[in-house]
Amino acid sequence: MSDFPFPLMIFxxxxxxxxxALTADRPKPLIPVAGRALIDHALEVGHQAGATRTVVxxxxxxxxxxxxxxxxGVAISHECEQxxxxxxxxxxxxxxxxxxxxxxxxxxxxxxxxxxxxELAAAWDGSRMEALLLLLPLADTLAHGPKGDFRLAPDxxxxxxxxxxxxxxxxxxxxxxxxxATTSDAVFSLNRPWSxxxxxxxxxxxxxxxxxxxxxxxxxxxxxEALLHSARHx
Length: 234
Known about the structure:
The chain is an alpha/beta fold.
């Protein structure tokens, strides 16, 4: 599927503090789920989508990540002095990603069903969108917690902040980085440009046709493995 038109960035720089002792000697993306490192699950999503340019950012125990990714055609954006958060990490990686919209994937999720990046690419409309986020209804998520992130309007726009947020962002999106590139700060979350895009009416969401599990804490590992097992036997 070489027609996938977006470069892909996978976020893998975090400390993984919610994982407790599991990240004492390794970065979270190298924690195994169903016999494979989390980062390998994310890379497989990109490969199956047809991504031909992939960038992974690193910070915590970056030497281990570099060894794991060596020889796999993946560019590394190493955040050497400090972790830059999601927005700052994307800004630092832009020279490796090139111009135009980028696909973004978290490394601490497991997806089943349709390929999340292909779903986003099929729905992307750059004439009206600055961001397109992949969502699930809160009730359909695994190991996430009790709160949603966004409301999803019938026209596909997302909003938040007034209550009733019943959809969860599940770690995959396409985003035009123009706002990120012109931000003066080096360290910031993507929540800031998301808020600006929501205010401008250019932030959209679609619902994933499949399952997703948050593997941000130890309990998520067993839930993710059960999700994968169920998907293989459907």
